[in-house]
Amino acid sequence: MISVIAGNSSEEIAKKLSKKLNGNLIKTEIRIFPDGESKITLKGKISKDKIIVVQSIFPPVDSNLFQALSLISKAREYSSEVVIVVPYLGYARQDREFLPGEIVSMKVLGQLFKGVGASKIIVVDIHSKIGLKLFRIKSENVTAIPDLVGYFKKLNLKNPLVISPDQGGKQRAKEFADEYKSEFLALKKQRDRKTGKVQIKTENLDEVQGRDLVIVDDMISTGGSIIKATEFLKKQKCKRIFVACTHALLIDDAEKKIRKAGVAKIISTNTIPGKTSIVDVSNTIAKAIE
Length: 290
What we know:
By secondary structure, this protein is of the alpha/beta class. The protein has 2 domains: 3-143 and 281-289, Rossmann fold (3-Layer(aba) Sandwich), CATH 3.40.50; 145-270, Rossmann fold (3-Layer(aba) Sandwich). The chain is built from 8 helices and 15 strands. The protein has helices at residues 11-20, 61-76, 105-116, 145-152, 170-180, 224-235, 254-261, 282-289; strands spanning 3-6, 24-32, 38-43, 51-54, 82-86, 120-124, 138-142, 161-164, 183-186, 189-191, 198-200, 213-220, 241-248, 263-269, 277-279. The strands form 3 sheets. A 7-stranded mixed beta sheet has the order 3-2-1-4-5-6-7, sandwiched between helices. Strands 9-8-12-13-14-15 form a 6-stranded parallel beta sheet, with helices on both faces. Helix 2 links the parallel strand 4 and strand 5 (82-86). Helix 1 (11-20) crosses helix 8 and helix 6 runs parallel beside helix 7 (254-261). The chain is globular and about 60 Å long.
């Protein structure tokens, strides 16, 4: 029988995966000491067959990463086949040396996962697939786009248009639009590598006028790009603006700021638990495991 170990950050997805895979759910008990150290205890009988460890790596990123590594290490004592499911993979943006002297964190992650005994890693809508090539274990990226589109099809939007907030997300917007049976376009964005300041470089857009818009992104952290895009699109006399993303980190009151900018609703998946996480991706992950 498959054992599914529910990491502290991904209990909901782990429970759903366990049911879909007819697996044995193993819960974890975490105790945090005054100095910040984690003591992790597994609750349940672990099988010696395939083991699935489920743990998202969102803030506190380093604590959740250490817990993931610890769970893999313990699972490896029971089985030679340990699959780590990381619905949201922190550090995925650092997949190359953008400025001289920068450490490629994705390369470090790959070494860590292999070192503790993972045989395969499954991630959902990773920020850049380039980073997975740095891993020395089997890796698979699955997409939540069909799950998100399924939700939007129920909303009956008026002549919807899919928007990517930048050129880098153009392919993602195209995939969303193809599934949604709608048109799409990508804005031109410029970000200062040192300050992080974002500017929209696109000129006037007549095609958004009077239409409901869906801004599609893989993740929202502080919401800076979404806010800039929303402010620009509102000036083009569009109707309502919705945001669809896989990973909603929403740091520093980002949700409030995005809503204030004019977004009607933010819809995200349960890769990161939160108020906007209303789309379930456990079925998509289960298919990758099977």
